[in-house]
């Protein structure tokens, strides 16, 4: 194991980690948006009934 190989593997690992994190964050964002839209629809429906 030479140093340059370890550095390259490290950068590769960081890149994979970053892409996985951004994927998780975007999924969480989509999930939050769907929840928000559902809550908004419920809120509008409740206000129409008054």
In short:
By secondary structure, this protein is mainly alpha-helical. 94% of the residues lie in helices and 0% in strands. It has one helix and no strands.
Name its key features:
50 residues; mainly alpha; rod-shaped; 0% strand; 1 helix
Topology:
Blueprint: H1 3-49
Radius of gyration: 22 Å
Largest sheet: none
* Contiguous runs where pLDDT drops below 50 for at least 5 residues: none
Helix content: over 70%
The gross shape turns out to be: rod-shaped
Q: Strand fraction band?
A: under 5%
Question: What does the average pLDDT come to?
Answer: 91
Helix and strand content put the structural class at: mainly alpha
Pattern of helices and strands: H
Protein architecture, described:
There is one protein chain. The chain is mainly alpha-helical and 50 residues long. It has a domain at 23-50. Helix content is 94%, strand content 0%. It is built from 1 helix and no strands. The mean pLDDT is 91. The chain crosses the membrane at residues 20-40. Keywords: Membrane, Transmembrane, Transmembrane helix.
């Amino acid at each position: 194991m030479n140093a340059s190989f370890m550095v390259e593997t490290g950068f590769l690992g960081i890149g994979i980690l970053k892409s996985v994190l951004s994927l998780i964050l975007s999924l969480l964002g989509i999930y939050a948006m769907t929840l928000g839209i559902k809550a908004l629809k419920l809120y509008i429906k409740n206000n129409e009934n008054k």
